[in-house]
Fold this protein.
Amino acid sequence: MDANTIRQKFLDFQAQHGHTVIQPAPLVLENDPTTLFTGSGMQPLLPYLLGKDHPEGTRLCDSQPCLRLQDIEDVGDPRHTTVFEMLGNWSLGDYFKEEQIRNFFTFLTKEVGLDPKKIYVTCFIGNEKYGIPRDTEAAEIWQKVFAEAGIEAGIAEMGSAEDGNKRGIKPGERIFYYDDKENWWSRGGGCDSTPIGDPCGPDSEVFYDFGEELQDEAKYGLAHPASDGARFMEIGNQVFMQYRRLEDGSFEELEKKNVDFGGGLERIAAAAIGSFDVFKTSMMQPIIEKLEEISGKSYDNNTDEMRVIADHIRGAYLLAAQGLAPSNKAHGYAMRRLVRRAILRALDLGISANFLSEIVPIIAENYRELPDSILTRREGALDALLREENAFRKTLNRGLSELSKLARITKGYQELGELAKDSKILSGNDLFKLQDTYGFPLELSVEECYREGIELTKDYLKEFEAALAEQRARSQTASKGMFKGGLEDHGEQTVKYHTACHLLLAALQKLISPDIVQKGSNITADRVRFDFNLDHKMTPEEKSAVEDQVNEWIEADLPIVFDEYDKAYARDTLKAHGQFWDKYPDILKVYTVGDFDNPISREVCGGPHVEHTGVLGHFKIKKEESSSAGVRRIKAILE
């Protein structure tokens, strides 16, 4: 059974049991500053789990795309991913443990077709310190459910996961009690960390057994559900919110109890095909097969590289399809990191030509069932990712060329890399220059040096970090001196006016004269005041045309990204607009509005700016007047 079928079966099954199917939330939540991305199915529903009435009722379900970058370094094993889809159902003061446990077991065994003999579950052991009893209710319900399926399910007490590594499981055991590190849910973690006033409670996790042969006892200890070994994989978690923490730190039972269920679509799909490797499911396998085709290498011999590529490009596609663009800021930086890590792994596979044009359509097809309400920019997703791939490959080519220069055994290149005479030893300063000036990543420099037999100094990493710290200090000083930009503050509205100022200059250059430059600006939270060179008073038609052009760009909701570049590259290659090239630092920020290869505006600027133009509102020129000889002044507002 493929993942798309499982998703639809889950939603249909829950609808048959009285649940309203709600739309998933975007990966970037507008009103949640606590995290970059939606990292769980319940995150968008937290206000309703905290007591707010949901407009769709008390029984809800959805399938929520999630992104967790904290797992990025673990990608490469059979089950960790940064992007995944969470099947979820909720009871807001409606049904509780009995109906939830029975329904999930029925869905797994009857709808998906999993073997009930391979299902194991965990429950909360209780906490004497706070007087919270063990969850015998959930354990006994599970015991009855297994018995009805012809399975005698023994109950065992594990304690901690570490205790389980030593004890293992005994014949006939299927239900296990664990402590609050494993089977207690709150926004803060275990019982001690539960925030005052928050709903919380025990949970019951469901695991699938992929076989005794997968347990590595030497590495992980004896097999049990909460082990880090490969034998058991968690496929769902049922949180029973039945308590609230009080001001004195104690807990009381809630009158209105909630159920919060989340199950990993990819993991359930892996169980459905009997493979502990989630990259062999229908969401991943077509990507893997295409990578095998274009690289000429097998998945079995290149699992790490292909898993990283498949996972990271899925995440990057979802972000691009929601209108994000790679940049060096917050969400855009995370997206850039995913794309570039994938490209580096593609190089490891020998894929030197652009490959996203072959991979992204496969991913788009897998997500065709997701609603347009969250994937609002499907059509432009591939182009956004291709621009980043092309830009990064140019970066890599420049870096490789410079690395080759630095490694030459000639006196002529000594001053470039501070090389010792007649040696091939590179220092951390050399590697920093490659990254700082050419964007060539440190890890790739080290890898290339290893491949080419180029020796590195013993303390190259410390040298690199020292150079990085020095550059940051220089940049901060330069920013304070060079890039004040006339901003009164960095409040939200002031930042909007700063972006509007860039659009205004671009419109003046496009419609009035390409020779127009900024002669001064003053930006507050109430208006923008912009001075520019012009030898005549603007006509009403000119003012109207400029105003209309700025509003057209605002309505187009164009992306705004920035990156740091070598000064010469920014000026000569990117053709960035700037007035003080002789005074700018060697590395500077460049902001681009619109399509990267054909931008509306590209300026040297210290920022900050909004991430897309659509948030600005309506641009209105209030006044155009003389400022001084040959200089005009526009005062404008955003309505």
About this structure: Residues 409-422, 478-485 have pLDDT under 50 and may be disordered. Residues 492-638 form a domain with the Threonyl-tRNA Synthetase; Chain A, domain 2 fold (CATH 3.30.980.10). The longest helix spans residues 378-406. The CA atoms of residues 61 and 89 lie 4 Å apart.
